Amino acid sequence: MSLALQTRPDFPILERRVNGRPLIYLDSAASSQKPRQVIEAVKLYYERSHANVHRSIHTLGEEATALLETARDSVKEFIGAEHREEIVFTRGTTDAINLVAQAVGRAFAPGDEVIVTEMEHHSNLIPWQILARDRSVKLKAVPIVAEGFLDLDAFDRLFTERTRLVALTHVSNVLGTINPVGKIVARCRRAGSLVLVDGAQAVPHLSVNVARLAPDFYVFSGHKMLGPTGIGVLYGRREVLEGLEPAWGGGEMIKEVWLDRAQWNELPWRFEPGTPPIAPAVGLGAAVEYLGKLGMERVLAHEQELTRLCLDRLGALEEVTLYGPRNPEIKGAVVAFNVKGWHPHDGAALLDQDGIAVRAGHHCAMPLMRKLGIVGTLRASFSVFNTPEEIEVLARSVANLKFQL
Amino acid sequence: MSLALQTRPDFPILERRVNGRPLIYLDSAASSQKPRQVIEAVKLYYERSHANVHRSIHTLGEEATALLETARDSVKEFIGAEHREEIVFTRGTTDAINLVAQAVGRAFAPGDEVIVTEMEHHSNLIPWQILARDRSVKLKAVPIVAEGFLDLDAFDRLFTERTRLVALTHVSNVLGTINPVGKIVARCRRAGSLVLVDGAQAVPHLSVNVARLAPDFYVFSGHKMLGPTGIGVLYGRREVLEGLEPAWGGGEMIKEVWLDRAQWNELPWRFEPGTPPIAPAVGLGAAVEYLGKLGMERVLAHEQELTRLCLDRLGALEEVTLYGPRNPEIKGAVVAFNVKGWHPHDGAALLDQDGIAVRAGHHCAMPLMRKLGIVGTLRASFSVFNTPEEIEVLARSVANLKFQL
Amino acid sequence: MAWNLSFAVTGRYHRSVLYSSVIHERFRRPRFRGELPDPDAQFEDVNPLCGDRVRMALTFGNGGIAQARFLGDSCAICTAAADILAEMVHGRAFSEAEKIGVSDLLSRLEADIRPSRIKCVTLPLQVLKGALGQVGSRT
Amino acid sequence: MAWNLSFAVTGRYHRSVLYSSVIHERFRRPRFRGELPDPDAQFEDVNPLCGDRVRMALTFGNGGIAQARFLGDSCAICTAAADILAEMVHGRAFSEAEKIGVSDLLSRLEADIRPSRIKCVTLPLQVLKGALGQVGSRT
Ligand SMILES: Cc1ncc(COP(=O)(O)O)c(C=O)c1O
Ligand SMILES: Cc1ncc(COP(=O)(O)O)c(C=O)c1O
Question: CATH says B3-30+295-404 is which class?
Fold first, then answer.
């Protein structure tokens, strides 16, 4: 059975109609929909086991704690981390990057350098700009070339003795480019620089193994991988996290507290101040189980097929411009495009009339838009439940746009 | 009809049995249970309307945005804020305090002073310790006297020209003391100091009106007020937020971005980097509606009655020591106590055998414990669904502890 | 001001309402788009939701606005709103121009604008007010 | 190491299992609690979950631990674990003391310890290892 046929009944939202048409949701890269299994896990958690975690002696508190920590174990398995201490729950990718920028950045000196790329999401750019502002750190960006690949020679030239950290996305949320993260991590390791990989678009699509990839930090969001909103993950290599002073404080993350000082708690809790997003974490655990059961190889193959079909169909339309690599095998599950004569917002509004949800705009990547010389694009992105038929409807609707000019 | 009778059917978790006994949940101050209305709101959100917010042109995105922003309006109404721009969604109280400490603290100079109190939760202490560490700011604490009141004369003496910010709790999570926040805010305003009020224990229990109270910042958590985990609120006075540079960056919080700089978005989004915890916010909206319908005056009266009964019953036991004010009218819905011969953890474990969930330990207030000369306490805390009968069972179980010595 | 939730319940729209013929017409053939050489005031701003940029340029005369032009690579709604707004203030007294509100623009657009797009209407208005704010310094 | 979820499904416990008679007895009448004047090694640490503090003091002799005593204002489980542990190492060779693991302690405690309390058992062990870590510097 095709993956879509198997999974569609799990997604209640697919029963919705939009403007009288069946919903065709092609915006999973912005935020994915949730299977029943995830929604139920959150609901059951509240109905049966909720209490605050970690300091409770009572039964509910113990259950809630076990559920939270089991979710951590599931995430650890899913991304192939070696130790549960390496999995820090955050609110999302953005939150995780800020955490790293502020904790790691404390030790940076004026003139130290951070390297990002021209294709970063604002979330992997602004935290470093803020660090640059606050600590006189120098920020450099690796340019992109051709269809949207990193210029690795330029990267080599940008890299200096002062390079303390490299922050780059695993998969571009606009171009879909899958960056050669392994190579870059190895390069950074040799040169003694830290490296943070933004996996927000990778984890939902690829089989990621952080132990093999071996970055210092790997971050992603639950809501883009069939999980709830309000939860994300910072994977940090244990040796690195162990040496890191927290930048944010509160309950949970301490061992002992005096009025004027405190001793930090063990990993991973040292980096989780305050009551954690318990229910979202439980839901993320369920999402990870769901994806694990499907098998990420199957997910990848399915989404590649949809991407290939979408590139084919839209590429065949004269009025359409495509962005990013044309080969779905080196591409995430996103297709960015523009339609001649239409501002992306108007295009999206018109497609919505046909029940089709696509993203429009700069996709939180304004520097990339500027580089491409455009204000924005339309973007279709795919998940486990999307079908080839939906892509055909998209292509027909896009083709029809010219008649509305 | 009593508030408890009215509300109990709304809380699915009350059907649970613990160790064969009906659950008696007396740990709402750590985290409250959720009514069906909140659980359903989260579920329906995922089943019908989920998408990413703010940048979506499609129907689901618009619905999700409207639901999120409507939740903001509900919170604004609930706490009597004047402007919706003043309501910033955070992950919780801790997150909100870190946000303020880092954003406001950027402008502090070495030698500037921050005043906290001896009764603060670690969440309203460690972020200021971190600020003190990072910016050589001086941290002072207002001592407590008698049954657990702030020493206001000492506060006056601690206050100097270098005092830039005062951070104090509205209601103590251990003693229950309701602090004279209005007076302290007025004092700070006159002297030109900022003031942050930690309302985590106040908003679930009292009718709070921030426009009348007029602090610069007021923070609280959704999960303690019948709402979901993973959501909290930073109320900031508009004039203050307007002048504040964000300390954390990402998507959503920007207007325009270049590789080397960015222009911030309008309030409140300027302080909400990344995809927000949408479903938790929608759930918080439902919680606030639920509390609003009950009426906070009724909630207060009900919880005061339970507090009074609990103080009476436990106070009558020779082996019990009570902490904090004895008058429920100047006290939150918490009763902290110890039982002679029992470490609090053992007491809690034994009460759990009777189906009773109470908290045990230092309640994230180690400096207060040290001041009281104890390692911890037991703590019973109350919510809308608790009954006088439950308090009687608690008192009987506590009385029975001595037979287990 | 509360957030408009009116549509969130049904989520139903008709294609006919999406873009009125006014929007369509003004987007395809704007009458007041263009440069204004040597303007007395000009202002530009950005829509934080999409990064679209709109600029409005004015010349003054007779205690009012002599000419108005806009520039901007923006969506249909924003372009139409800017074009209509430029027309509305062109040759008008300052006092009249200052009184123009969102509702005036909305009624001229003859379309239900969904909350997600309302910024596309208010941006040109905001830019106009910015330009008018320079009146004091000029006259 | 994975988190123990075994109980989370039923959440059922019997009062009888909560505190074994060993825990009860050791908590009420600990045999190895007290000061040890002039110890050869001592170490203390804190349970991050509750702030409970345990100290272990040792004297050495004959290539092993001559005496062991603990101090700490802690809960029944932690006190009992510390007391049993002190007894287990008292008069033993370093090599034997170093081999003691959580499972040894748990079986001596004769009770199912719930995950939320496991730290109460491991803390004394951790403190002992800390004290033993000072052996090298002393001998
Ligand atoms: C007074 C007070 N402040 C702050 C907090 C921290 O709240 P949260 O853990 O939701 O961030 C709590 C509760 O734990 C509290 O009682
Ligand atoms: C590549 C990339 N990085 C970071 C983010 C930010 O994730 P979040 O908004 O969940 O923090 C996104 C998605 O918006 C993304 O696509």
Answer: alpha beta
